[in-house]
Amino acid sequence: MGLTNLGIFHTVIGIIAIVAATTSFVKYSKINLSALTGRIYFFGTLIASITALGISKRGGFNPGHGLALFILILVLLAFYMHARRKGNNRARFVEIFSLSLSFFLSMIPTVAETFQRVPIGSPLAKDMNDPLIGGTILILFVVFIAGSVYQYRVQKKINA
User: Fold this and answer.
1) How far does Cα 109 stand from its chain's mean position?
2) Is the distance from CB of 55 to CB of 4 less than 8 angstroms?
């Protein structure tokens, strides 16, 4: 599989964050930073984004590093909205959308790397341009949009 120790650590932390976020989505219809699952997602994504900056197949700064920095900004923004803007109903929309967008963006390298590595010896995709990767990301994007609309409607009812 060709992972460094940093790559293994990054992968394990990332998987934990994804499981926590999925659990939070199912239980609360959002990544809930007030719940343990939301905090696990926040810290896991924070660590995974930072460790992603030390991983590079091609050497040097690449689009994956830019994505990691953007995800880092999104989770920090969401945390700020959660911690500092408790009485602001509009801040909940920003918090929820930022966390959901960070989750979707995290899935792009997750899908690409997984499909290019699994199963070992005969991966599902040959490279990042494989239609299977693009199609899967498109499906995830549609789910993200539908989920965001649903979360908006739920939060709007809460704010009313």
Assistant:
1) 9
2) yes
- The span from the CA of 94 to the CA of 92, in Å, is 5
User: What's the predicted TM-score (pTM) here?
Assistant: 0.93
Q: Residue 85's pLDDT band (boundaries 50, 70, 90)?
A: confident
d(C-alpha 71, C-alpha 66), whole Å: 9
* CA distance readout (Å), 156 to 11, 55, 89, 101: 35, 40, 9, 18
Structure tokens at 151: 């979360």
- Which has the closest alpha carbon to 41: 82, 6, 1, 3? 82
**Integer CA distances (angstroms), 85 to 30, 41, 89, 97, 153, in order:** 17, 20, 8, 15, 20
Q: Which residues contact 71 (CB under 8 A, 6 or more apart)?
A: 45, 49, 102, 105, 106
Q: Residue ranges per domain, the chain?
A: 5-159
CA angle 5, 7, 10 (to 5 degrees): 110
User: Which stretches of the chain are assigned E, i.e. beta strand?
Assistant: none
∠ at Cα 98 (94, 99), nearest 5°?
120
